[in-house]
Each structure stands twice: as structure tokens, then as C-alpha cells.
Amino acid sequence: MKLILSAHVLVVDPDPQTRHETGEALRLLGIQRITEVGTLEEASAAFDAARVDVAVVSGVGGPDGEPLAGQPRQFPAAPGRDLNAPSILLLADPVRSDIRAANAAGYDAVVPLPLVPRTLYRRIGSLMQRARRQERTRPPAGFPGGPVMLPAAAEAKE
């Protein structure tokens, strides 16, 4: 898990105390590069300013936080979605429809509240490993993708 110790984690939460406690819990587990912001707009600015490996988002529910009866929760788009940066949504009592809605909004994982720091740490590590694997298998920039026919193979086919 050396990869996770060098990670840059962005913690997004409107409550300063919760934001600080989440960041401090991750620091105690060994992650040193943590940026704490209060809004998704500030998170976008943080993504523009530096390379962020994982975003941890909490407290982004609707105006009252709870949906109407029978209605699934709505979540804003995950920060860093356009940059293929993994993001984790912290939710109190998530149900299957909440997880689906979070995935549709671009979140890669949902971690239940109350937060167990070790669970969040492990989820960050697994998302970073998955992102690293995808980076390795992604074709280089400018590569058109698709099969490549070498001249010798083309002659053999004829």
C-alpha cells in the first residue's frame, strides 16, 4: 500500500469540523497530502490547481438532506469526473437506490457513515489500484484504438 501513502486526497465537506476530523483520521493512517475544502466549486478549483488522486465527498445531499417518501436521493456530479479521478461519497444509511444514484452521478464508491477511518483508507487504496490498472491498459494519447494490421500479417492474409 505504498501507493496510498503518497496519494493526494481531497476531502469535501461543508462542515469544517467534520472535514477536519476526516482529514486528521486519514493523516493518522499515514496519508500526508490532504486538501480540505467546503464546497464542490472549491473542489473543482483544487483539481485545477494540483493533481488529486482521490476525492472524498460528504454532506452533499439536497437542501434538506432527505428525499420525499418514495423518491431516490439526488447527488451532484462527482468532482474530478471529467479527469477520471476516483471519488468516494460518504452517506448515512445508504440503500441500494442511493448507491445507484451516486454511481450515476460519477461516484466510484459509497462508504457508510458513521465513518470508520480504516474502511475509508482501504476503499481509497482499492480505487487507486483500479485507477492505476486502467491507466496501464489505456492506449497512448493519439492512438486511434482498434486492431493494428502489420504489413507482414496483411501479406499473409492475402
From TrEMBL:
Response regulatory domain ranges (all copies): 8-128
Lineage: Bacteria, Pseudomonadati, Pseudomonadota, Alphaproteobacteria, Hyphomicrobiales
GO BP terms: phosphorelay signal transduction system
PROSITE patterns: RESPONSE_REGULATORY
Transmembrane segments: none
InterPro entries, A to Z: CheY-like_superfamily, Sig_transdc_resp-reg_receiver
Segments of this protein annotated with the region Disordered: 130-158
Protein's name according to its UniProt entry: Response regulatory domain-containing protein
